[in-house]
Structures are given as structure tokens and as C-alpha cells.
Amino acid sequence: YSRNGCRNRRLARSGRGQRTARCSLKSVCNASLSRRWTNILNLFVVVMIVLNFYTSNIRQVIWVYRETSGIFHETRYITAVSATINLVLSLLFGYIWGMTGIVAATVIARMVYAWWKEPMILYSKLFGESAGKYYFSYIKQVCLCIFSCIVTYTICHLFPKENVTAHFIWSILVCIVIPNVILYVCYFKEPEFDYMWKRLKVNRLFKE
């Protein structure tokens, strides 16, 4: 592999790690808060909104590399296909389930085609290799996010619910601490973590 290719892939994985942290935190926070706001949004709607946020932001690094490398001709039909699938599913699911169905249709349309096709073209044209490592990393990130949500959700409900305010504060603290501890344990030995840590040190030095 070329030096630039390795560096690009390292930065891409680093970006996905950052988004996993943000999405995991957002997911568990929304899941917890939705129990207090059931008169506004039920839990399933919140989960669909979080999934929409996650599946959209997890692909931002791919979009950046596509735009900076100028690979537009090869990916020109991906948006059109995804938009068509989204429109059809939104009409169908929206009629059946309302707002929840529309959000779910967006997530499904994005995952059915765009999430795997775009990286395959990018890796093939830009890096000259298979996107298998990206797919494996992506699946690992999703599994880690799900695990983090389950653990955090479970710990949040260990606190008695009689005192709503205390339970709310407890849930916020758990949602802030637990996902980040899990991510630290899983990534502190990874080169991406070392890279981001060095970047933080440099930024702090410039601020001082």
C-alpha cells in the first residue's frame, strides 16, 4: 500500500470512530429521555430518528473523500437510486405508520444501496483495493454502538424511578460516562486513538 493510501484509510477510520462516540451518546440519551416524553414521541420514533442521524453521519468521511478526489461521474446514479427507493418507501411506510414510517424509509433506503455501493466505488477507484476492510470496520462500529446502548440503557434503569428528577440526572451521567468508557477501552490501543490524542495535544498547545 502507498503511504497516502494508508494515511487516508487511517483518517477515514478515525472519523468513523469519532462519529460512533457521538452517535452512541446521542442514541442512549434520546432513548432515556423518550421515556419522559412519551406524550410527544414514543421510543420507536426516537430510535428511528437516531438511526437516521447515525446512518447519515457515518458516511460523511466517504462524502468528503468523494468530493476531494473528484469521483462524481462514477457515483452519479447512487443518489438518484437512493432517492427513488426513499420516495417509494416513504409513501408506503408513511401511509401505514405515519412519521415513524417516513423516517424508517429514509434509513432503509440509505442502507439498502448507498452505504455499500459508494465505499466500493471509492476504494476501487481511489485506493485500488477492495472495500472489505471498510465493511468489516463499519459492522464492528455498529455492533459496538448497539452494545454501548444496551449497557447504558440497562444501567440507567438500575436507579429507582420514584424520584423523577434524580433518575433523570442519573441517566444523564450514565449516558455521558458509560459510552465513552466503553469506547476508550475498545480504542485506546488503536492508531486512530493515538492520532486523535496527538491532534488534541497540538490544538491545546496552540490555544495556550
Give the strand tally: 0
Strand content: under 5%
List the uncertain runs.
9-14
From the alpha carbons, calculate the radius of gyration and give it in angstroms.
Answer: 19 Å
Number of helices, counting only DSSP H or I runs of 4 residues or more: 8
The biggest beta sheet reads: none
Cα-to-Cα separation, first versus last residue: 38 Å
Q: Name the structural class.
A: mainly alpha
H/E order of the elements?
Answer: HHHHHHHH
User: Which term fits the overall shape?
Assistant: flat
What's the helical proportion of residues? over 70%
Question: What is the averaged pLDDT score?
Answer: 77
Your description of this structure?
- Helix 1 runs antiparallel to helix 2, helix 3 crosses helix 5 and helix 4 runs antiparallel to helix 5.
- The longest helix has 32 residues.
- The protein has 208 residues and is an all-alpha fold.
- It is flat, with a radius of gyration of 19 Å.
- About 3% of the residues have low confidence.
- 84% of the residues lie in helices and 0% in strands.
Present the secondary structure layout.
Blueprint: H1 3-34, H2 43-57, H3 60-69, H4 76-97, H5 99-127, H6 132-156, H7 164-187, H8 191-207
Helix pairs in contact: 1-2, 1-6, 1-7, 1-8, 2-5, 3-5, 4-5, 6-7
Summary keywords:
8 helices; 208 residues; 84% helix; single chain; mainly alpha
